[in-house]
Amino acid sequence: MVNHSHVLFRIFEFATAHLIALQVLYLFLYAISGIEDYNIHLLTGAVILTAGYNFFLLYPYTKIFGKKSRIEIKGKGTEYSLLCINVYQPNTKYGELIKLIEAVKPDIVLTIESNKDWEEALQEIEQDYPYAVKVPLENTYGMHLYSKVKFQKTETHFFISDDLPSIEAHFEDEQSSFVLFGVHPPPPSPTEEPNSKERDGELLAIAKYVRDIEQPLLVAGDFNTVAWGKAPRLFRKITSLLDPRVGRGLVSTFHAKYPLFRFPIDQMYHSKNIKINTFESLRNVGSDHLPLFCTFEVFPQHENGIEAKSGIEREDVEEIHEIIEEGKEEEGDREDLN
Predict the structure, then answer these.
(1) How sure is the predictor about 67, in pLDDT bands with cuts at 50, 70 and 90?
(2) Around 181, how many Cα atoms within 13 Å sit in the side-chain half-sphere?
(3) Which three-class secondary structure state does DSSP give residue 48?
(4) CB-side neighbour CA atoms (13 Å) of 215
(5) 305 in a domain, yes or no?
(6) How confident is the model over 262-276, as a mean pLDDT?
(7) Which of 72, 71, 74, 99 is nearest to 85 (CA)?
(8) Is CB count within 10 Å lower at the N or C end of the chain?
């Protein structure tokens, strides 16, 4: 995989599964063709090598892998549920999301791309969700957090840019306590950002911050990248957080309208003292993303597994610092839609 931040290179991270399908098709046609050509043989060798590498990337995210991101803890933890949804700011089907919330009844709702219109529409759920953090923006990077569980404290961060928020929320009730981080870095795409510098810088800045959190931890949101991409791999290396997709399947969420071209860019990661029981996408509510839903148990008496001072080599530290600084220096083009 080419190590370059430009969208033309980073976009291929998304299509790994589709590339494997095309490579398998090519190898099948090659096998039945009987072609005897030196250049074709060389090309086939290259296809076999790249297909093997792509399969290596995807294999943990298949059900045949078998090792789900579960912890071996005896007893019963305190169970909660989280619904995370990029609502797609121009989407006006507010009632569809409200109906889904009423049907699923999650303890926590995290909305992404939610602006002032969405905030006003979601006032309907506030009787059931009395605790809220509201960051309405018109640039498609607004974010709202609604909860039935009481906040101990909350903070809105702007790690890379003053128009890219992330939400830190500490939850506490009589049974347990934990921390949730809601994130939404910008994607590299021909219509938004020409490269992945801001996205990667934002994710790694968050990783550096959350690795010092000692409580049970969840990081969730629209990562605008796939789990096997370079930035998420560094994110997991920095934080030691677990990916609930491992052994469960891709659980793809974007694009909601095109099942054959759908990618798992809405993600969740958790510390080792959180056990994921359910992890799935739900029905479309008018957005270009499917909602992501999980139920999880919290075991605050166990260590979270984050090694705050070890596990990262000097070369990685230098690369992480460079990526974060490049993200800060990049000037994203995010205009208000209204």
Answers:
(1) low
(2) 30
(3) helix
(4) 16
(5) no
(6) 93
(7) 99
(8) C
Rounded to whole angstroms, the Cα distance separating 182 from 164 reads: 11
In whole angstroms, give the CA distance from residue 296 to residue 298: 7
Q: Give the domain range for residue 44.
A: 7-61
Return the structure tokens found at 278. Answer: 């359910």
Tokens of residue 234, six digits: 């560094």
Q: How many domains does the chain have?
A: 2
**CB 246 within 8 Å of CB 61:** yes
pLDDT at 9: 44
Can you give the CATH number for the domain in which 136 is found?
3.60.10.10
Q: Which two tokens stand for residue 144?
A: 């709202």
pTM confidence score = 0.86
Q: Which residue in the block uniquely carries the two structure tokens 């398998």?
A: 24
| Overall residue count recorded for the chain in this entry | 338
Each residue of 137-183: pLDDT tens digit? 999 999 999 999 999 999 999 999 999 999 999 999 888 999 999 99
Is there a domain that residue 314 lies in?
A: no
pLDDT mean over 5-18: 59
Ranges 97-111, 147-161, 195-209: which has the least confidence: 195-209
Report angle CA 246, 218, 159 to the nearest 5 degrees.
Answer: 115
Angle at 105 between CA 100 and CA 111, to 5 degrees: 60
Percentage helix, strand, coil for the chain under 3-state DSSP, each rounded to 5:
35, 25, 45
* 96 shares its domain with 224: yes
